[in-house]
Fold:
Amino acid sequence: MDDYKKRFIDFLLEKEALKIRGDYTLKSKRISPWFVNIGDFNDAMSSNVLGIFYGEALTSSGEQFDILYGIPEKGIGLVVATAIALSSQRPNLSWFFTRKTPKEYGEATNLSKDERIKALVVGRVPKEGQIIAQLDDVFTAGDTKYQARETLLSIGNFKLPLLAIAVDRQEVGTDGKSAIEEYELRTGTKVISIVNASDIYHILKNQKSFPEELERMAKYLRVYGTEQVRKTVGKLEQKIIERYKSVIPACDVSSLEQFESLVRQTADIEGIGAYKLGFELALGYGLPKVVETAKKYTDKPLIYDHQKAGTDIPDTGKNFAKVVKNAGIDAVILFPQSGPETERAWIYHALDQGLKVIVGGEMTHPAYKRSEGGFISDDMLNEMYLIAARAGINNFDVPGNKIDRISHYKSIIEAEGVSPVFYAPGFIVQGGIISDAAKVIERFHGIVGRGIYESENMREAALEHTSQL
Structure:
């Protein structure tokens, strides 16, 4: 890492502009555990230092430029400070910015080019063919960057090889693509930053002063980060059940007494890996009470299936995760049918609370996906699993009564470099056979509901199902 990057991160920490304690709502509406507020640099000294760092980033880029342009509004102060910082090397380096105008440029539309430049430009008017380096504070979706480019090209024929920002958060957008990479591809302009999320992560890791904050940042970057920063923070490998194969009783019962009897009769069976709790018990008796009842007989993992969590707006994932964690649950099952932002948000907040996460997509019943007469696009089912895999999730819910689909999801998840652990319902009543599914998957946990809790002897039923593993 270049020395100026290290000094800049130290400067951010010193000025408390790098915020790593708490939750911060971004312009994208994501709730992040880390944030850099360049707006904190609003005095002479800090503005001067910030300009120096921008100057070092521009110089280190190796790109040539003739003039600096500050993208309104934040770039206006930056461009002046940076030009001053570079004055010892380039005393004649000039700068300018443009007045913020409507996209159609209002009255300027009918002006001649010279008049339009006069109406728009503050500072040194750029000359035809000059190489312009653009400056701004951050890069989110890139809307203001595209608008600035349109403005510049409306007043002259310029070369725009470079855009400098302070911090690259290295995040993907809703579509899973990096907004910066997309901008570079569409415009041919290279985006450089003084530092990026990987740089900040490395420095914090080496300082060893912020272990909890670093772990939260890592979880966030695994879910929302680009492929590059995900490699920096490393993979997430969550193990919910120690055994490679087991049976999980689905405790979708409405009576707390029946649930207690089920756990009491099966807790000592070696092949029982965990217990899946449903909304009937949670709503009827309160999740903390249900967990307390189970803990009287077992310390095996308790998995909460909200049928189906992850279908609400992104923000609600935070409260869901807190409530479930406080109740004593170990893992949650998410079926993120409300889109990629909901999926990422619910995964992140669950991880942030210390929960283990299982993500599902395809369900066991007929007429679910579009190719079978349902609502859900087959391609989008793939995306549900792929987004989770890219976020580091390795536990997945698949339909146990559809062996071909289990093989399909195994293939696409492994292509992402993830070794999946599958949790599968759909047996007995819905036609699936545990032994058949167990042959397809190395790490497999069959979820059995009515085949156990509706049996006259729940213990014997559980022993019979575990024998098929």
Summary: The mean pLDDT is 93. The chain has two domains: 3-233, 245-466. The chain is about 45% helix and 15% strand. The two ends are 51 Å apart (CA to CA).
